[in-house]
Amino acid sequence: MVTAPAANAAAEGSSLRVRDVSKRFVSPDGAEFLALKSASLEVGAGELVSLIGPSGCGKSTLLRLIAGLDTPSAGELYVGTERIISPSASRGLVFQDPNLFPWLTVRRNVQAGLVARGVLHEKHHEPDEFIRLVGLESFANTFPHHLSGGMAQRVALARALINHPKILLLDEPLGALDAFTRMRMQDEVLRLWQTRRTTMLLVTHDIDEAIYMSDRIVIMSPRPGRIERIIEVGIERPRERSSAEFLKLRGGILDMLHFAGGETA
Ligand SMILES: Nc1ncnc2c1ncn2[C@@H]1O[C@H](COP(=O)(O)OP(=O)(O)OP(=O)(O)O)[C@@H](O)[C@H]1O
Ligand SMILES: [Mg+2]
Question: Is residue 130 part of a domain?
């Protein structure tokens, strides 16, 4: 059997199970409130699922719990059969702000995770493979302040993917980009997803983005933050944003968000 280069290999993502998870916080006035109430969700290995809902409905809270950056007040979370109790490189996180190290070149930013884990020597071919994977081979020696927003976000994706995450958690990763770059980057993320088969959980405020990209869409609502509904998209890929089925689903989701009592932006 021929072994494909790591960056092109079909890496099997892991399933995710969120079981009856609640998260309680104390608000500035000292009162306790539920940022997340009894959320349950199962995501299949290699599935791409979006979370949408009004500001404050607990999307980032849920992602942080899955990342292991925070612990639930009740309930359990599993990646495959393994319980999530702390952060792990196998659960990559990409935010709206690419958070690159400004003093490091693109290559050094991408390889930072390998350096931190002390495995750069044995995986020395991977930084260039992942830089190629996100189409930035001519920019490997460039510093972040010379990159456009879309390019910087590609570096952030490569930096997360180089750890071979079983799950990639994306918290509004395209939220700061202009409309055209954003649509190009949606295709880019879909290409990465199709190449690597990483399980992806994408938080977005953009209903079109959720429909264009996801297998399923989780609709959340606030006060207390909870999962309101889960919708199967079921439109064949590549999707056409102006198709009748796309627009019909869009209308349905808008109604549901209205029904859920919130605004989407
Ligand atoms: N560490 C914290 N301490 C106290 N309250 C918090 C903490 N983190 C989040 N919250 C609160 O929990 C609620 C849910 O926050 P969260 O960031 O998950 O919302 P969100 O759905 O991601 O919103 P947005 O769309 O604006 O990013 C909000 O009311 C927020 O103020
Ligand atoms: Mg958020």
Answer: no
| Residue 90: CATH number of its domain | 3.40.50.300
Tokens of 113: 């995770």
**In a structure prediction context, what are the per-residue pLDDT tens digits for the chain, which is 265 residues long?**
333 344 444 456 999 999 999 999 998 999 999 999 999 999 999 999 999 999 999 999 999 999 999 999 999 999 999 999 999 988 999 999 999 999 999 999 999 999 999 999 999 999 999 999 899 999 999 999 999 999 999 999 999 999 999 999 999 999 988 998 899 899 999 998 998 899 999 999 999 999 999 999 999 999 899 999 999 999 999 999 999 999 999 999 999 887 544 444 4
Q: Give a yes or no: residue 151 inside a domain.
A: no
Give the predicted TM-score (pTM) of the model: 0.91
Residue 131 lies in a domain: no
3-state class (DSSP) for residue 10: coil
Q: From the CA of 89, how far away is ligand 2's center (Å)? A: 21
Residues with CB under 6 A from ligand 1: 25, 35, 55-61, 225
**C-alpha distances in Å from residue 241, one per residue of 20, 156, 209, 244, 249:** 34, 26, 9, 9, 11
Q: Which ligand is nearest to the CA of 31?
A: 1
| Parent domain of 53 | 6-102+164-259
Give the distance (Å) from ligand 2 centre to CA of residue 172. 8
Residue nearest to atom 9 of ligand 1 (CA): 61
